[in-house]
Amino acid sequence: MPRLVLPVKTSAVMVILLAGAMYMAAEAREAVIKRQELELARLEAGETSNKGIGDQAQPALPSSPTLSPNSAPQASIVQNVAVKPQTTSTQPHQQANEEHKRQVIISIANRRLALLEDGKLIKSYPIAVGTESSPSPDGEFTIINHAVDPVYRHKGKEIQPGKGNPLGNRWMGLSLKGYGIHGTNVPSSIGKAASHGCFRMARLDVEDLYTRVQVGDTVIIRRERDALIAKVFPPAENTPATTAAGDVQMASAATADSASAAAAGAQQ
Question: Whole-model pTM?
């Protein structure tokens, strides 16, 4: 049988073509492997990023404040309070009490703040209220945020947490911009009309209240002694010198007489 003899030039071309085909096949195989690895990595990353989303707490939405017809609060000095993200989370013991209805009742005339739970008086505290030139607001609000060691900012001035911070070491912001319940670096002002409209509390009192309230709790503020204030703050508790606690059943704010007479100014 005669042998097929190819010219040297043709043999070289065939070798080159065969090598090229093998190289392209190897490249295609490598590309397929890389695509598979990338797809696997993408799936793993997506699975990891979705873990725990169901456990994330959703932020509470602030409700609009309801002001009484005679209220005319002036701008509070607190324009911006820096809140650390981790400080606004609900504390463990608060989660167990989520089914309870809490109300903070503030009497500007008595310069006291009381905490009610399910209509029951839990505790009351002495506070400082706004001055005549910068009175505290009057109406119904909610707590929309709270913070440990807040940063005080006003007109470009910033004060970090510490002894010189006018907000003390706790802040509970109301649904009226710039107003809140907080500590103070001037404890001697407690029981007086001394603030720029916010409600100051002594260090131990504000720390105690902070552990008891949550974002979304109602805050009812009355400028004068109406039926609700008379039930929550009896005459014997009018002085702000002591912190009282009791288990007296109180009427809910919804059934109390909420009408207030016109006020000439903040109590001194």
Answer: 0.58
